């Protein structure tokens, strides 16, 4: 059986203590969503829900904020929000939430995304950044990572599944090993040349920034066995 959680916990670093927080008006249970923190709020978008018998599957496109002073959730009903998805990634650059990619599965069809959306926390508006003609742009994916360092957003890896219209054909999964940088001042993507000993193709890993370096750990890749 699958059980999807909708509970909220707080960890106090100084006391080394976990606390279960009861929060009014909380969002429905979900996994594979994303959150960022800004000032006294946490912002959350998307995710997926699976029923215990795995017969029902649902993707969310709701956008929520949690007030960290009152522990109250509130849904943000802003126009132009991204479509329903999970496996996307979200980072904070200055006063903007930057969201990229993810996937959508209705059991009848699967879609992987490479769209770029920005939520301005000053004026509470979504904007989709469209590729300019002839510019470089990453391919659709989920399960990648984004990290912010100064005025660059770096992306690594991820997963993409090509779904054939032929019912008998097997679905082909691709695990990415490419690295990109996004300039949030111009919204231009550039491919980053990998030197040294870069990680191989992978998805579902973690990445964070410490001082002048990004730290990557783990991940998964499926190997085809002949």
From TrEMBL:
A Pfam cross-reference name: Kelch_KLHDC2_KLHL20_DRC7
Residue stretches in coiled coil: none
Xref: InterPro entries: Kelch-typ_b-propeller, Kelch_domain_protein
Gene3D superfamilies registered for this protein in UniProt: Kelch-type beta propeller
Name of the protein this chain belongs to: DUF4110 domain-containing protein
Lineage of origin: Eukaryota, Viridiplantae, Streptophyta, Embryophyta, Tracheophyta
């Amino acid at each position: 059986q699958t059980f999807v959680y909708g509970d909220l916990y707080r960890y106090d670093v100084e006391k080394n203590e976990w606390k279960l927080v009861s929060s009014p008006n909380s969002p429905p249970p979900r996994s594979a969503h994303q959150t960022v923190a800004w000032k006294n709020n946490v912002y959350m978008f998307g995710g997926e829900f699976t029923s215990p018998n795995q017969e029902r599957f649902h993707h969310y496109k709701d956008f929520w904020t949690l007030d960290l002073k009152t522990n109250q959730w509130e849904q943000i009903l802003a126009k132009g929000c991204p479509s329903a998805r999970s496996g996307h990634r979200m980072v904070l650059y200055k006063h903007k939430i930057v969201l990229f990619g993810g996937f959508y599965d209705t059991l009848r069809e699967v879609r992987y995304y490479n769209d770029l959306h920005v939520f301005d926390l000053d004026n509470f508006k979504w904007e989709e950044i469209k590729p300019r003609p002839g510019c470089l742009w990453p391919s659709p994916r989920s399960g990648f990572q984004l990290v912010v360092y100064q005025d660059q957003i770096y992306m690594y890896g991820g997963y993409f599944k090509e779904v054939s219209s032929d019912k008998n054909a097997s679905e082909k999964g691709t695990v990415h090993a490419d690295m990109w940088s996004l300039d949030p001042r111009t919204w231009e993507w550039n491919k980053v040349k990998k030197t040294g000993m870069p990680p191989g193709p992978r998805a579902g890993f973690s990445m964070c920034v410490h001082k002048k370096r990004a730290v990557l750990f783990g991940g998964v890749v499926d190997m085809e066995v002949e």
